[in-house]
## 1
Amino acid sequence: HEFIIRDLVRETAKGGDSWQEVRGIGFLRDGRVVINEAYPFIRDLDAIPIPDRTLLPKEVEYYNPIVKRIPATTALTSRGCPAKCTYCCAPTFYGTRYRYRSPESVLEELELLQELGYREVFYRDEVFTLKRERVMQICKGILERKIDMTWICSSRTDSVDKPMLELMGEAGCHMIRF
């Protein structure tokens, strides 16, 4: 994850072999595979900076057939899922403890994306709707700030209700993957 790369860059910049102690990496030492201790999951997702999309190549246009409005981008507002569905790799990759960005952080990113000219966001969260009050705050914030952005998210059928779905639709959600 992001902090592994940060720590690896910091240790590499020091010179020497200290980079070999960074948690979460694997490498070859004298022809043998070395796998370091796992890096703990990031608890405070607001600590991760919003990706700088201005660094993306200008000539490449992101495309996805389910996106309605171009240009579009992807974003992540949460990690983890408490469900342990046998067909899903999310618990292994992201853990079973649900962690999420604050509504303010999500809205700040949406405003920045709108300034950059994006018109749609495909949220890559495993379960965007797991915290009802958070979803409601995000949707109300989109409407209050007049953010003109459509979006897609993923959910579970047991984590939505009619008022939430109606507000999500008003706030620009045009597709939910269950």
## 2
Amino acid sequence: LARLIELYHKAVGNQSPKLVLVRGESGLGKSRLLMEFTSQLEIDEPTLNLLSARSLAETSRVPFFLWKSVWHNRFGLKDNDPPEAARTKFLRGIQALWEGQSGPVSATEVTHFVGGLTGVEWPDSPYLTAWQTDVEGQVKRAFELVRQLLCRLCATGPTVLLLDDLQW
């Protein structure tokens, strides 16, 4: 725990990302360690952006499940949200990160691509329609937009992306 906190403070102090891999035998307490780490950060760092998700054996073949979990957790989406409510929550979450910052990409485009990647449907989206015949290009575009989304999030304060049980 002390080492994780030390690495976190080093990354924040240097304003540079760090990749930390916690590995060990099953049942060793890795998930518990990560839970304690995030609990401590949430107490000590009120401006922390914590993005977290956990893989499950039953979702190992679901495309982009971790990203779905990350963004749905971040924007407060529930599995039983009606489609319109899910779209509204997702759009508001993205717009909050785009607020006051201009750029070549609109919040709506990001919402449609990243939402579409994570199960939030956007029927008749002009952004997605343009890519209907190029699925590979659509996924590449979505990945680029996720990168931009993460950059905007990181600009708002210290950010931790925690992905647990990656073996699944």
## 3
Amino acid sequence: MNQLPEIIRDIERVPADVVAQAAQYQAAILSDVAGRRGTMHARVAPVHHSMAVAGPAFTVEVRPGDNLMIHAAIALAKPGDVLVIDGKGDQTAALMGTLMLSACKKLGLAGVVVDGAIRDRLELMELGFPVFSAGFNPAGPTKFVPGRINHPISAGGAVVNPGDLVVGDADGVVVIERAKAPAMLALAVKKVADEAARLDAISRGDTASKWLPAALRAAGVLKEGEQL
């Protein structure tokens, strides 16, 4: 009986042209068109609000406070990949800092998303490399507990499969299934156009939400024929 290896080296990634298109949209737009699915918990936030990332997920599962498998993942990931690390939300020790993240930047990775703590916040703000984490802690990690690379993981409450589209910005991180990503981008085009039209209407003084009365009646707040 063949056992699935702990490290999977070859994965199918979301296409580069899809990543390039996705990078043009806010994470909020992509979350909306994806049915509000795949959005990570707000604890996973950028080190600085100006940071943004888009790329295929290169997934890593570690035990809390141990970064052995992250070192292995850095050695295996390809340029443009986003390391997405299931650190179990643990914030008792940092899983990464300036040294490891500098290596990620040098190797051409697109960014790192860690559902766990990191450290060296001020240095990372100067590094100019997109990093999202669940917090900060000065304590260093251990390096001897096995984990997994490129298996399905849960990070920030979202399911992440290797090769899925990952997009992050000041609002947080959204993950879109690889096979669905092209269709979601087509919907994003319409979403952006609709919101631009709505903003134009608001600028002209039309601040009323056309859908609101019907929604209030459906919720039982307004009676039939009653207005706000």
## 4
Amino acid sequence: EESENWKKLSEFLTKENIREAHAMAVKSMTTLNYLGAKLMHKYKAHCATDVTGFGLTGHAENLLLFQEAELDFVITTMPVIRHVKKMSEILNRQQKLYAGKMIETSGGLLISLPSTNAQSYCDEYTKISGDDCWIVGHVVAGSRKAILDNPQIIEV
């Protein structure tokens, strides 16, 4: 609580807000991907990665590099931990947030599924785990880039 970032954040957010965001991050980092992996088999996932040090766009582009077809990943939705959007503004990091380059230590799984299976995967994952699951975009023919199509930021 003595760091410069903490001091900046505590001017605009309560300790409870900051601790809530921290607790959500810890939960994400300590949740195993067993269920997600099990459901990937059931719903015929094409590929997947965990979102960590390259952010959402970096990991999407990493997946695209290994695809046979030349595709782009169009990101339409970016779920972020509640209060992180405000934190990015306070710490002058919103450019990284809006570019999908926030560096999550463990941000969950980015999974490519047949579009006909995506919602069923999310529904079953949420039903079993009690955690939310989102469809964050889609693929189109392209040149192996992650494209942010004015993504909706969802605070969770």
